[in-house]
Amino acid sequence: MMAMFRSLVSASAQLRPQQPSASAAEGVESQFSCPICLEVYHKPVSIAGCSHTFCGECLQPCLQVTSPLCPLCRVPFDPKKVDRSSSVEKQLGSYKAPCRGCSKKVALVKMRSHIASCSKVQEQIANCPKFVPVVPTSQPIPSNIPNRSTFVCPFCGARNLDQQELLKHCMTSHRNDPNKVVCPVCSAMPWGDPSYKSSNFLQHLLHRHKFSYDTFVVPAPQRSTAISSKLCHLMHCSIGSMTAAAKTNNRNLSCDPHSSKGVLWNNRLKVS
C-alpha cells in the first residue's frame, strides 16, 4: 500500500511543471540576454548557420554590410537566412526573473518595459559613476571623433563598407559609372579635401588605397616624436658604421708607412 502511494506521489511530481529555483531564476535573465545590448531579447532573431540569437534591432547594422559576420563567433552568414526565433519568444513568455532594482518577479517578455518604469533601476542608473580617465591628463577628451573605419559608397550611398568592401562593391556595381565622385576615404582623413572629385574613382581606389591608413600612418600628435626617434636611430647607426670603417681604413693604411696618403689619413685621424 505504501509502495503504491509513493509511486503515485512521484508520478504526480513528474507531471507537475517545474518552476526554477530562486538562484536559477536570477540566472534566467542572463541566459536570455542579447550578447550585443546585454538586455533581455526584444524580437529575437537567429542566424541559421551558427544558431546564435540576437535582438532584431541589434543585428540590423550587421545586415547592412556586403559580407556580414556573426557578431559573436565572426563566422560569415547569409543575411537572407536570419529568421525570427519563435522558440525563444515562447520561453520569454514562460519564464520569470527578479527585477534587478525592486526584485519583483517579472515575465522576461515584459522585463524591458518594467525596467524602463522601475524607480529603483532608474535610481541605480543615476548613481552610476561617471567616466574618468585612468591616468590624469590635461588633454581634452575628444567628443566628435570622425569615422575612418567604414565608409559610404559615393555612387549609390551604400553604408558601413570598410575599405576592401568599398572596393569590391564599386568594382561589382559601379565599374562603368562615368560620374566624378568624392573619395570617402580621402575626405575622412585630416588632409583630405571633401570637395575634390576624382575623375576615375575605381583607379583611384586601386592605386591610392592599397593599404589601410590606420595601419601605416602615424597619428599627428605622435608624428614628430616618431620622426625624431627614427632620425636619432639612423644617425646613431651612421656614426657607428663610419667609426667602424675609419678604424678598418686606419689599420689598412698604417701597414704602409711609406704611403703619403696613409700618413695623411693617419694624421687626419689623429687630429680628429
From TrEMBL:
<dbReference type="GO" id="GO:0008270">
    <property type="term" value="F:zinc ion binding"/>
</dbReference>
<keyword id="KW-0808">Transferase</keyword>
<dbReference type="InterPro" id="IPR051438">
    <property type="entry name" value="RNF_E3_ubiq-protein_ligase"/>
</dbReference>
<keyword id="KW-0479">Metal-binding</keyword>
<dbReference type="GO" id="GO:0005737">
    <property type="term" value="C:cytoplasm"/>
</dbReference>
<dbReference type="GO" id="GO:0000209">
    <property type="term" value="P:protein polyubiquitination"/>
</dbReference>
<dbReference type="GO" id="GO:0061630">
    <property type="term" value="F:ubiquitin protein ligase activity"/>
</dbReference>
<dbReference type="InterPro" id="IPR008598">
    <property type="entry name" value="Di19_Zn-bd"/>
</dbReference>
<keyword id="KW-0833">Ubl conjugation pathway</keyword>
<comment type="pathway">
    <text>Protein modification; protein ubiquitination.</text>
</comment>
<dbReference type="InterPro" id="IPR013083">
    <property type="entry name" value="Znf_RING/FYVE/PHD"/>
</dbReference>
<dbReference type="Pfam" id="PF13923">
    <property type="entry name" value="zf-C3HC4_2"/>
</dbReference>
<keyword id="KW-0863">Zinc-finger</keyword>
<dbReference type="InterPro" id="IPR001841">
    <property type="entry name" value="Znf_RING"/>
</dbReference>
<keyword id="KW-0963">Cytoplasm</keyword>
<feature type="domain" description="C2HC RNF-type">
    <location>
        <begin position="99"/>
        <end position="118"/>
    </location>
</feature>
<dbReference type="InterPro" id="IPR034734">
    <property type="entry name" value="ZF_C2HC_RNF"/>
</dbReference>
<dbReference type="GO" id="GO:0006511">
    <property type="term" value="P:ubiquitin-dependent protein catabolic process"/>
</dbReference>
<dbReference type="Pfam" id="PF18574">
    <property type="entry name" value="zf_C2HC_14"/>
</dbReference>
<dbReference type="InterPro" id="IPR017907">
    <property type="entry name" value="Znf_RING_CS"/>
</dbReference>
<keyword id="KW-0862">Zinc</keyword>
<dbReference type="Pfam" id="PF05605">
    <property type="entry name" value="zf-Di19"/>
</dbReference>
<protein>
    <recommendedName>
        <fullName>E3 ubiquitin-protein ligase RNF166</fullName>
        <ecNumber>2.3.2.27</ecNumber>
    </recommendedName>
</protein>
<feature type="domain" description="RING-type">
    <location>
        <begin position="34"/>
        <end position="74"/>
    </location>
</feature>
